[in-house]
Structures are given as structure tokens and as C-alpha cells.
């Protein structure tokens, strides 16, 4: 007898789930009345697994809406689900074996949902999961039937169950959102999903923000749009700013546009800085196109430079007006040294790039910090600039060049080596004397300016070679002049 009762209970609970699944395929009011009566009889007969029924039907309803947006073949469905599940689980926390187990369970459940849709709506000729979208009248029938079930279930459904059902309804939309056709969010399928999710919120689902953030992270733009509407309609708080950070982190540009246009984030600065820190040029470019302020671009510039993403920094330098760079020159150099990173490559990049567009102004900005003429200079930055980029460094470079020339002359005139340097061709002697300086300059000449120390040595060398140069002469021209005096085989080495 006990086994019979268990079997009967299982059949009733299974029957409730199957009957509830049929809601999303209703076509007429007569069908609605018949199904409502059937569900009521099953519950009256003792069905009580309401949690399983609502979770299952919520996921199925979402799959129905998703599949109405794009043709998915029977053969492709498993591959599509598997690929998207892999993407979803890849960055989730937890042990790999647990992710695999969860993925297998969810994949089987999704396959069941797609097969269920296939049985209800599948052309024998095309074997495609596609049919004409439900009319708004049919959608109202579906939502009416679901509401009737909620009334029947009453207190048997807790807030926790509604929350889980809400998550189940959102899940397929995050998997298939990239397949949605334009305009899906304004069609009847979206109306159906909005209605379902709204009913679940009324029942006590409290995870709208969690699902909203997840949708933003995975670029589920249509779901983001729907959840925004639900949040506004029900006066629920959703974290637009954090959602924008997630979407920008994963380079979901369409979702970012939706969040900015319809969510009205408080600021674009946070995600812009994060994108600059990661070196995501595409996302930084998008934010610049959205009209971030000049000050925000300066902050992104220093972040990109201090993080070593010089392609992003170069792009931002082209976007920031010159007068802004000039006004903030010393602050930009200080910020580019990074927070506790110990690296000054960002500062060196800005100086080599002639970030102020004027060599004298760029050198002066570096010299100002090197002399301690501004407030709050980091000691390591001051030492670096004083050694390489200051007027003092230039003078030291000139002195070092003079000392080097004297040493070369001593070797030529007093050297006791059996190799008589003064017997070599003059160009060869010049190559021996200045090859180290030439190589040091070439390694720096990727930018527009040379460090002052090297530039001082180079100016001194040019004067010894009879070239007319002045203290204002710049790196590239000086290096090219030195190169003309060097043996061709050394220059090419």
C-alpha cells in the first residue's frame, strides 16, 4: 500500500508539472478554461510538489520565448547549449568537478525543454524550432493561466521558491540572447517574459538585482532591458553602475549602450578606468565616443600608462585637448607612476611621447617635479626624473660626453695597444667611440623625445663632429645626424 501511495503521489506531482508546462502553448480561451480545470483537479487530488512545477515551467516559458526569436535546428540545439553553458561556467567560482556536474545537469534540463518545444511546435519539413510568434492575445492567455496556478498554489509557494523560479526564468535568456533578432524586446515574446517575471516578483522573488548583474556580465542585452523595466515598475533597486562595470569588463558593447541609454548610470568613470587598467582599447574607445569628460580621459590616460597599456594611452593622448594636458602636466606625470607599483615606465612613456606636444614644455614639466617645485612628489619619481629627464641630467650628459671625448683622445694619442686606432679610417674610429651612445639612443627613439641625460651626451658628441646643434636640438634629428657618421655595417648591427 505504501508503494502505491508513493507512486500515486509521484504521478500526481508529475501530472501537475506536465499540465503547467502546457500553459505556454495555449491558443484559445477554451484551452485556457480546460487547462485551469485540469490543474485544479490535479491539486485537489493531492499534488503538492509546487516548487518543482513552478521551477520547471518558468525555465520552459523562458525557452519558448527565446526560441521564438531565432531559428534553432534540432541538431544544433545541443551544441549551442553546451557552448553557452561552458562560457557561463568558465568564470564562475568553485571547483572544476562541481562545475562539470552542474553543467551536465543543466544541459540535460535545457535539452528537455527544447525537446518539449519541439514536440509542440516543429515542422516535419524543416525540423526547425520556429513558429509564428504568439499573439498578444495568446500571451494574455498564458499569463492568465499562470496567475490562476499561483492562486491555487497559495501559501504552498514561499519567497525562496519564487526567487529560484525567477532565476530559472532568466537563465535561458542569458544563454540565447546573442541569437535574438532585432526588435525582440518589443515583441510578444518579451511581453510574455516580462509578465512571468513580474508575477514572480509579486510572489516574493528578491533576486532581481542579482539576475540583472549576471545578465549584464554575459551581455544579455534584452534581459537587461526587461529587468530594468521590472525594477522601475516595482520600485526595486538595481545597481546600474556595477552592471556597467561587468558589461564593460567583458566588452559587451550592446549591453553597455542599453545600460547607459536606459539605466542612467551615475558615472562612466569607474568602468572607463577599469577598461584602461585592463588595456581594453575597444571599450575605452566606446566610452570616449559616449562623451566622457576631458578630466575623466586624463584619469584613464594615467591609469593606462601606469598599467603599461601604451596603445590605450596613445589613443587617449590624441583625444585630450592640448590645453588640458598642459594645465595638468605635473599631476599627470605624478599619477602615471602608479600606486605602489614601483614602475616608472608609464612616466617614461609619456615623456618619450612628448605628451604635451612641445618638447620644451614636456621637458620643463619633468624638470619642475625633479626640482621639487610641486607638492607631494613621490621620492622615486623625483629621483628618476632628476637622473634622466631634468636640466641637471642634460648638463650631466654634456659633461659625460666631454669626459668620454677626452678619454677617446687619450687612447688615440697615448694608447699602448698593438692595434693603432689612429691608423684606422676615421669613420671606424667614430664607430668605436660612439657605438654605445648610438645604441642607447636607438633603444629610446621609439618615442619623440630622448631622456635629457642621453640628449646631453648626444649634443656634445655632435659638437665634436662639427655639427651645428644647440641645446634645443631634439632626439630624432640628433640620432639621424650621428647615424650619418657611423659605418654602415655598425648601424645595421
TrEMBL record:
Gene3D superfamilies associated with the record: Ankyrin repeat-containing domain
InterPro entries associated with the record: Ankyrin_rpt-contain_sf, SKIP35
Signal peptide: none
Official protein name in the record: Ankyrin repeat protein SKIP35
